[in-house]
Amino acid sequence: MTAAPSAENTPHSFLDDILTGEIDWPRWLDFPRPDPAERNLGDQLVSETEKFFVERVDAEEVDDTRSLPSGLLDDLQERGYLRLVVPAEFGGRGLSPYTAFRVIAQACAHSVTAGQVIAIQNGVGAAAMLPALPPGPLRDFVGARLAEGTVSGFADTDRSGQNNARPSLSAVPVEGGYLLRGEKLFTGNGSVADLIGVSATVETADGPKVGAFFLDTHTPGFSVRTRVEFMGSRGLPNASLALDDVFVPAEQALLDPDGDQLPPLVGLVALLGRILFTGAPAMAIARNCLDWSRAFLARRAVDGRRLGEYDEIQRIVTAGLADVYAMETAARWSLLTEDLGARWLERFLTKNLLVRGAWRMVDRTVSLHGGEGYETVASKKRRGAPPVPVERAFRDARGLRVAGNVDFQLDNQLGRMVLDRFYTMAVSTAPASPAPATPAGRPPASGFPPLLREDADHLAALVRQVRELAEGLVRDQPDPARLYAGEHTVVLLGRALGELFNAVAVLARASAEDGTTPEQPWQHAELAAVYVREARHRVEGLLARLRAQPRADHAAISRRWLAAPDDQLVRH
Asked: How far is CA 498 from CA 238, 403, 471, 535, in A?
């Protein structure tokens, strides 16, 4: 569920830079930061959350038993964690997306599983959907249930998969409402929810339409078919749901009267929610990895020399610091805006940036810890080693790259949405002239710390190259369907866009805040330099692959192999 609105007078977006081929540095250098009141509120809630979860949740027991502590859901409800983003009129805390992100990340820092229960409720459940519900009976129904205290989720994945154009679960119109028939998989909070949103396809006289339907889980015909368990996030109440002619009143259905997909606001809510229920846990894992690494290096030495004095170890440390700085930067740029439709592109790609950043972090941390990184907490306790749960974090982090849609498919969708804009421009306007070699929007050199001035020039050149490459793809293949059929090209473009956005955002933040963070053992510019230079290498590699002519016939090779019953490569 995604949307890409066109709006004027909204906060600056990276999409503007890609379409023009020019980075508008003056607008980037006005980098968002929470106002003091919001920052103080967030600090207070983060502190309260840390204390509550340490006292209430044994993260290792949750992982071992694959179950939440008894009564935890009631405690979360009582303390308002299941209504973080719900407006005060419905008994919620009314937190901003960024402050909710911080609170959820802190919960996940102690237990990803317990934190994700909060994240799902506030990111994709009924609480998250309120902004997308127009005034009327549906909003009143959902709001009243939230005020009463409810656990919710949203069932969107069918047995046939998540990436079909329409859900396979059907909603059959009947007098007074709809009968829902089918099955949903991988529903977060599905086994404990008492209110569920469900996506379904309605056959109408004008053709099939996709709708969202909200129902109580005690409704006849609804059942939890089975609990779903994962390699990571053990104990998460995820479920496969069966709907056997479940009646949903018409006033509890949401359909777009002007289109055949869900209303655009639902897509915008989904972009925000995906950051909360996958990005916040990723942020927690990455920060934990930093903390664990510092403690590990403080107690280890090789041949009498402290481990932290070795060159490669120092590079691992600085790469981790830079990655966490970049993840934090992407979250701030994407979430610190009151306009739900603004920066939709950044919100779309921030999910991948955060979960991939966490994956790099935990992978490095396992390697840094060596055998201890691969060892379970129980084993460490038996031999008296510090019970650092790196192995659990590794499992949890891998799942985040799948949750909310697999990472390469999100790259594919992102690339298509941006190319759609270039196709629209090609039809509606004359061919654009090349962007100037020195963009008019560039600030004087004094706008950047000396350490980053060369990087600013390189990033500007890469943005121009991406624009020219996208224009070339559209020019060479006027039929979008044929271009999009070559998915790998689109995937590479989508990934390059994400990497490039984060590099630009990091450089802008570091330039705007250089020297303003007191008492930190790092400087903005030095972390930005580490991150941006590695990101440049990744972007340059992706663009080189985009320009290269394909030499292997992947279609022929894969079709022959898939059609064969057996072959030497699968036998020992």
From this structure: 29, 18, 18, 10
